[in-house]
Design a protein that fits this description.
This protein is an alpha/beta fold. The chain has helices at about 5-20, 40-45, 75-85, 95-110, 150-165, 185-190, 190-195, 205-215, 295-305; strands at about 65-70, 90-95, 120-125, 140-145, 165-180, 220-230, 240-250, 260-265, 265-270, 275-280, 285, 290-295, 310. The chain binds S-adenosylmethionine (SAM). S-adenosylmethionine binds near residues 47, 68, 71 and 146.
Length: about 325
């Protein structure tokens, strides 16, 4: 795959920096409202993400945060809300105009947020495919609606770069579109549609497999929601294509011998006659109490063939706790 499309993406985001484009990427998911956080209007207009990557649960113990593909800076500001220290958040973008606008927006945010100092954020020119960041220095790395633009080879490089810069147990938090239907080649190779985060989506399981093949030992699928349709009237496709967006956290834990732990929102409930069921592999199911389980544990429990354990379907809403 020729990498000229990467320049098309940069050009498109140069334009989107100069002339903010409402509706580019973005979902109608409510924006985080937090005490004493006021997000400048220009940042809201430039919300080019497709979910959120900011989760207080990831942000304990003063983490060093890396944000790749800064856009108008809304999530960078939200991360700074939790870190509140000089250079606590590093924001990377290869598009000079985007960095400039992000910087202006952050300075604007200083005026309406007493707690905020724009020096909490260190903006740097750089590329997701070659991060200007030392190995194993980052606790939380985030990207929102960027990696889906990349074709296979570049996606591999971008994920490996994130893995490289994360400390052990560090977290990659991402939001991206996914699509379970095959997207026609002509649309996949349309550089503009791809850059607009419309036609580069891959199936969720492919995304998860890529993360585990790089070495992430624990994966959390935190949300999945409808994102866009590509319909035959507006796009060059014979069938209607449904695209969703996901929020995923991939943790740089070692991969267990029996495979990575992938949480997709499954739960096990034991409803037998005993007080509890112990599978002797670290999973204790209290009578009629739900236990969040990873897909691997769900498979192992199902293989036991017990009639008094219910294993729920994936909800694609996982918010912590449970087995492993
Ligand atoms: C869809 S926007 C998302 C912006 C932001 N994450 C948000 O949620 O609003 C993609 C961002 O990635 C930047 N970008 C484009 N190509 C990039 C690359 N190769 N490496 C890093 N960032 C890139 C764009 O300039 C833009 O800021």
């Amino acid at each position: 795959m020729k990498d000229g499309y990467l320049n098309t993406a940069k050009d498109i985001y140069k334009d989107a920096a100069i002339n903010p484009e409402k509706g580019l990427c973005c979902t109608t998911t409510p924006i985080w409202q937090l005490p004493e956080l006021t997000i400048p209007g220009k940042m809201l207009e430039m919300n080019y993400g497709c979910g959120t990557t900011v989760n207080p649960r990831d942000l304990v113990n003063n983490p060093s945060i890396l944000y790749v593909g800064v856009g108008g800076g809304m999530e960078v500001l939200q991360f700074a809300y939790f870190s509140r220290r000089l250079n606590g958040v590093t924001g990377i973008d290869p598009v000079k105009e985007m960095l400039e606008v992000c910087d202006i927006n952050l300075k604007e945010a200083e005026k309406s947020n007493n707690w905020f100092n724009s020096e909490y954020v260190n903006l740097k020119e750089g590329d997701a495919l070659n991060l200007p960041i030392e190995d194993e220095t980052i606790d939380v790395g985030a990207q929102n609606c960027l990696f889906n633009i990349f074709h296979n080879d570049e996606l591999e490089i971008a994920l490996k770069e994130m893995y490289r810069v994360l400390k052990p147990q560090g977290r990659l938090v991402l939001s991206d579109p996914v699509c379970e239907q095959p997207i026609p080649e002509n649309l996949k190779n349309d550089e503009r549609l791809r850059a607009l985060c419309l036609t580069g989506a891959i199936p969720l399981n492919d995304y998860l497999n890529r993360l585990t093949s790089i070495g992430f030992g624990t994966i959390e699928v935190r949300a999945k929601r409808p994102y866009r349709v590509l319909d035959p009237k507006h796009y060059n496709t014979d069938e209607l294509i449904f695209i969703e967006s996901v929020e995923i956290c991939a943790i740089k834990d070692p991969i267990p011998k029996d495979g990575a732990c992938i949480f997709t929102g499954k739960t096990a409930i034991y409803f037998g006659e005993e007080e509890l069921f112990d599978d002797k592999k670290g999973h204790i199911l209290l009578q009629n109490q739900p236990l969040a389980i990873c897909d691997k544990t769900a498979g192992a429990l199902a293989d036991l063939g017990m009639h008094d354990i219910l294993i729920s379907e994936s909800t694609y809403f996982y918010d912590g706790g449970g087995c492993c």
